[in-house]
Amino acid sequence: MKKKFRIPLAYQILVGLILGIIVGAIFYGNPHIETYLQPLGTIFLNMIKMIVVPIIVSSLIVGVAGTGDLKQLGKLGGKTMIYFQIVSLVAIIVGLSAANIFKPGEGVDMSQLTKTDINSYVGTAESKSNETFMDVLVGIVPSNVIQSMANADMLAVIFFSVVFGLGVAAVGERGKPVLAFFQGTADAMFWVTNFIMKFAPIGVFGLIGVTVSKFGLSSLIPLGKLMILVYATMIFFVVVVLGGIAKMVGSSIFAIIKELKEELILAYSTSSSESVLPKLMEKMEKFGSPKDIVAFVVPTGYSFNLDGSTLYQALAAIFIAQMYGIDLSIMEQVTLVLVLMITSNGIAGVPGVSFVVLLATLGTVGIPLEGLAFIAGVDRLLDMGRTVVNVLGNALATVVMSKWEGRFRTETGKKPLESVEKMA
């Protein structure tokens, strides 16, 4: 029997991306094209958002109940948070270094730049900048878990799922029907994920078509230096920093990229890490990380391990300072690093997260907030790149934690010979 020819999903998404760029370029400046294309992207993203919470809840409960050990879970959580903070700090330093070395903001003719309205982010930024560490801590514990699920408040959802999973494990035999229910839910939701992914090329076509029709190519020229530097720095970070970490634990960043090629194209096209979360968890489990580690590390990383976003925020802050001719001292840049580290934690669910963080941060070192209005127009195109880095950073984190715990599986299902106990 002849095998039926089928185009791989990665190529289908790529075709959707190219067609969207072509259609967007043809209808550049035509406001009516958004009426027809935006719904395609919105429906696809809504379908993904629809399944994110059920997958995280069911996977975490199954993973935690399977572990059933509060001490082991606390140990994993502690290691994970230390790793996230170290890598985020490195990302900020890489972003600052690139901006200081290449000085993308110097010589920019601000009269050529178009200002974009950023008022929609200001209120959110003000509320976030007034939050204390204790406010963030209190927000992790939900008063109403259903409301937290409806608002996609991931930290609160993760907290509830972990505690519920420990409860299921604690009641022993009586918890087995509950565990079977959530295992069935997780399996069913991954089937739904695969079904929804068939619509990814259409969603990508709509989203990228709208983006190109709005901005065109001419609007990118004044900010071209910034865009080139952001992408070059992100490539450096992926190859050198993430690649170096992967090599340290006996893995390869290029093997991870190959495994996630469909998800990375989708993340780039949609500018949404959320759009690939279900498949990312499935793929990293297939890659060799245990279910419970993947179920804990990936959702947590979506709030605390946004390497691409933190790198961009550091670079953009210095770019705006250079644009206004402000020379930041070493101490001011150290202050910027510390404020970015604190502000960027735990607000991944906020729309336009990078803008919100920058709005809440720039004023602390005397950089005019108005400068953000000049780069807002190309933020979507920069967001596409940083989303890919965010996804890769969280994928690598599952491998690092699995190796650190000595539980990573090779293709044969055996643990690798190399030890990473030296990291502990």
Automatic annotation (TrEMBL):
Membrane topology value: Multi-pass membrane protein
Primary site of residence: membrane
Gene3D superfamilies: Sodium:dicarboxylate symporter
Transmembrane region(s): 9-28, 48-70, 82-102, 154-171, 228-257, 337-367
InterPro entries, sorted: Na-dicarboxylate_symporter, Na-dicarboxylate_symporter_CS, Na:dicarbo_symporter_sf
Coiled-coil region: none
Signal peptide: none
Family annotation (Pfam families): SDF (PF00375)
Compartments in which it is found: Cell membrane
Keyword hit for Translocase: no
Entry annotated with the keyword RNA-binding: no
Entry-linked PANTHER family: PROTON/GLUTAMATE-ASPARTATE SYMPORTER, PROTON_GLUTAMATE-ASPARTATE SYMPORTER
UniProt name for this protein: Cation:dicarboxylate symporter family transporter
